[in-house]
Amino acid sequence: MAATTPSTIPSIAAGPWGAHPHTHTVVFLHGRGDSARAFAGALARWRGSCGRNPFQLFPSLRWVFPQAPVRALARAADTAAAWPQWFDVWDPADFAANEALQAHGLREAVPALRRLLDAEAARLGGRRDKVVLAGISMGGATAAHVLFHLDLDLDGAGDGAGLPLAAFLGFACRCPFVGRDLAGMRAVLGLQQQGDNNDDGEGRGKGISGGILDRALRGTPMLLEHCVDDATVPVAAGRQLTETLRAFGADVERREYPAGGHWFNAPTGLDDVREFLERRLGVVAAGADVRRREQVLGPTDPMDLS
Question: 302: cis peptide before it, omega within 30°?
Fold first, then answer.
């Protein structure tokens, strides 16, 4: 079952809750084989040391969960085999094997996700610096390539190009096509408009380093978390992503945890996210009113995902 990523990605959303004003939006990409709805429900079960989940900690945030398309598995013996995935992988045990296969899905997903980010920024008065991009596993790997293309005018309209995001959160993720410089990462997908690597003609190319547009990439604060016992995406692959982003001039904070597998660490992982968002976004995690809200919304799933 072949699929392409539509120009408008289907998604579900939750928040903000109660009387809280909408201050920021998190666009959170799920992993391979998952769904937006199942992932959102799982996120509600992630708890910090205070016993609260991300939605309860930050009730003024809108959370958007895009759904990856169902793509055929190129290597599967059953030619009808397909999974929800942002891009296909030839060998999950060797990400570099037949790596060119990954470019097809990324080439479709990156512009569509850029449009989603710009649509969410429009809800906040055009403030891209109020939008957080996040991803786990393959969702984080896809988000990395969205970051590489933040400075480029992919649709010819110039909307949002060159403007940093509020933050990037990556969990248990790696970097497809690792080992290339920023121009090389962009060349793999071939999405840039002519001249994009040097100037956008509107002054947003200021902050160019090495002759390449990178202001948005450099200006987006990033937090990467990885569990050392991850058997699906080895922590070494996550470290390569960190090194790659830092080599491109990005402001990256990295946290590693001894346990948690190919998932979020709890409770420290969420505690670190809370501290990062409070410091970088200027938001304050919910405090005294959380007990009252739990009585109304329930302790585990305070979301309307309809």
Answer: no
